[in-house]
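Researcher: Here's the sequence for the chain we discussed earlier.
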Amino acid sequence: MDPQEGPVRETLATNVKRARGRKGVSLSELARLSGISKATLSQVEAGSGNPTIETVFSLSRALELPISDLLERGQPEGLTVVRGAEAEVLSGAGVDLRPLQTVEAGGMIFEIYDQRVRADSRQDSLGHAGREHTVVQEGRLGVTVDGHEVELGAGDYVAFDAALPHAYTALDGPVRSVLFLHYEAARRSRPAVPHR
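Model: Thanks. This is the structure I predict for it:
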């Protein structure tokens, strides 16, 4: 599936419009807060833009919302299976993210992603809401957080405040990892749907 087609683009459009309306933020103000041009934001809200990881993270930071509030279509109930080959991809400069699940428990929201850092690539982030956790499955991953650098191999784990500037770099070939983000549930833009 093309990462820019279909439900991700449509869901992002709906959720950005909703969040902006709830916060009473104009399109011009959101452009200023996010560093994204007003024209690009108009395209995103119309569902005709090509959202990247950078766009979603910037909107998350500007709207002070968990990323799942921008990408989630609804709360699943019962058994949930996400096939890797069928998961929609959100691509950035060096990373492909596949949103797998959002879990709410104990006043916290946990987002789970399949994260792939492309060979010889680097993905930079100015920061966004939440705390970030990464477990490397395959490859060697360079992680830079607020100027501090670490190198991770298969089975290694790192966690940090996602509001800090950070970057992931594939050091010698592609890297597969699992990315977890967590937030306080109070940061959600809408109430959770109770399980039946």
